[in-house]
Design brief:
about 25% strand, alpha/beta
Length: about 140
């Protein structure tokens, strides 16, 4: 039996799709894809939609085409509980000890300036290496790993 690798996207429920998408573009080095054919900007496309659909979705993509597409959709309810799934942003790969913590702290500082919220630093425990919990601009948890 042959297994076929499936392409996938990661979808975020949020209140302000464009704001959250642009935050993640900065975090990951992603970009906003070109607007649909026939529109010179996403704003022009958005204005062509019925009022209730305006601002309801936004996306960003890996400019190299390797990473998954990120899709952000407006939902009426706010975030109420801890995420059951989160992203680990790999900034300390291959680093250990204080060198790893310094890399995590430097990236944390950059992301806090973009609106992220710092969480708890979990130090290496002999099994797992250090990581740093964070929240994005709408409170979605992610880790610097």
């Amino acid at each position: 039996m042959t297994t076929t690798i499936k392409e996938f996207q990661v979808t975020f429920d949020c209140a302000d799709p464009e704001r959250v998408a642009r935050f993640w573009c900065e975090v990951l080095g992603y970009v906003v894809p070109p607007p649909p054919k026939g529109f010179d900007s996403w704003g022009a496309y958005d204005r062509s939609l019925p009022p209730e659909r305006q601002g309801a979705a936004f996306a960003c993509v890996d400019p190299s085409g390797v990473g998954p597409r990120l899709f952000f959709q407006r939902v009426p309810e706010g975030k109420a509980v801890k995420n059951r799934l989160h992203l680990d942003v790999r900034v300390g790969t291959g680093l250990v000890g204080e060198e790893r913590i310094a890399a995590l702290e430097a990236e944390c500082e950059r992301l806090v300036a973009l609106g992220a919220v710092r969480g708890t630093l979990l130090r290496a425990d002999g099994f797992n290496e250090s990581c740093l919990g964070m929240q994005d601009v709408e409170g979605n948890e992610f880790c610097l790993d």
